[in-house]
Amino acid sequence: MASPVVVVGHQNPDNDTICSAVAYAYLRNQLEQRNLLADASYNTMRFEPMRLGPMPPESTWVLESNGLSIPKLVSHVRARVSDVMTDDPISVLQNELLLDAGKVLRQKNLRSLVVTDEDGVYVGLITTRMIAERYLAATDVLEEDGSNSMAVAADLIASLGQKVRDFIEEVLILDKDGLLGEAIEDLMLSSLREAVVLDDEQRCIGIVTRSDIATRPKRKVVLVDHNEISQAVHGIEEAEIIAIIDHHRIGDISTANPVQFVNLPVGSTATIVSMEFQRFGVKIPEGIAKVLLSAIMTDTIMLKSPTTTETDWQQALLLSEIAGVEMIDFGLLVFKHRGDNGEVPVNKIVSADAKEFQIGEATVLISQHETLDLAEVMKHEEGIREYMRHVMDDHGYEFVLLMITDIMAEGSQFICEGNRRIVNRVFNIQCTGVGGTWMPGILSRKMQVAARILGS
Hints:
By secondary structure, the protein is of the alpha/beta class. The chain is 36% helix and 20% strand. The protein has a six-stranded parallel β-sheet. Strands 14-15-16-17-18 form a five-stranded mixed β-sheet. A hairpin with a 2-residue loop joins strand 14 (354-359) and strand 15 (362-371). It is elongated and about 105 Å long.
């Protein structure tokens, strides 16, 4: 089975990234099934949502409460051994006769067979090469005048009645999730042409040959909620991007071929995904509607952010009708599932929704934490600042700016560590080392903060 198309958002995933990946993967899988029904020979692809970091608590809640799986954690999209291996290779028992194994090799036009014990545990390989070498070796004992030819022939015939276990070869063992590049080096250095892939129970689940690695495959990827290399999954430069769905500025991602690139100035990627369902005429299930609505409500801060558009309102209303919920009440419920701010670790307050930006030669980090209780979060200011300084020193940031956004008061408390002069100059404030600065009406990192800092 071919590897799935990875549908993945940015690093430090937020609710919009997770929910958009889940919903978009569902949409594309529905379209694949539609194509298959129209053409039975259609070669379908399987789309699988994945993530680059910890699950936001509200995302876990909205997915699990609607019976949807949590996206798998992926560390890279470089080609793996499993992308080229032949699945479920044909096997023979170690006590079978060489004659029988030879027949299978011949009938199936194979170069090798997996040899197992009676419990299916891998023992080794038997190859046409090994059998051929056994027969060629007979020429070493053949007399020049052929006087012992009958004896040699008898020996060769007798060998056909030997057990397969007497002819097995031990070959290179690979990890199915191992990097293909490293496996290629190991296989090319091996004296044999094959390698096997075992599972945790030592059963053979795949074979890799030198022919398999002649052309390196590229994993197919859909990017959601971002289009910049600095925010993308590791190994993206080695992958094949087949689509991008985003609502941010156009960054530095490049593709070898034209791809579907949907980039709209709306408040949430989930808004675009919802519109894609309608564009293709695919019904939105109730659970997916709640997932998409939760993302719109969090990314637009309850439709109060200046990034919110009429389109976001329209899609939120549509999704709330499908989901059978009142959208504002549902949005508040989603935010409440982020947890008690008194219990949220300071590292999550700072890093759970953080993005890097370049200012000339410098790199800065701008984080945002939305809350229904600003006072509770500010009780942890000292620990928050200490962690911000730790992050700044570890990554060499010019400054780290945290926006603690009060959803109900419609503003953000700025806490900054590092070169505060840039932030103070851009916003004409005096953001000091204690207490921070209240910024009324500042709700959007993208439009009201990052854009102004990058344009300064």
